[in-house]
Hints:
The chain has 90 residues and is mainly α. It has one domain (3-89). Helices cover 86% and strands 0% of the residues. It has helices at residues 3-24, 32-40, 44-89. Helix 2 runs antiparallel to helix 3. It starts with a helix and ends with a helix.
Amino acid sequence: MTEARRKLLWTLEVLFFLLMVVGTMPVLDHSRRETLAYVKEPTQQNLDAVRAKKDEEIRTRWLYASPFGVVVFLLATSISLQSKHTSSDL
Length: 90
């Protein structure tokens, strides 16, 4: 593997890793309305709404971030295999 290609793969891996990390970060305003309703009136119904909204947020974040995780894994595997292949050629 050429040095330029290796640098490109490492750059892509870091980029996709950062996108995956950013994609899994919580959004503070996602359940704001439900949380404020629960603070005003702490009922079981409002608490269930807050929990449902937070669960929805987690599922949505992982839905969008998981493809980036797969790409990071594939890039890391590719870099590792190419490095082993080139080191055995020496």
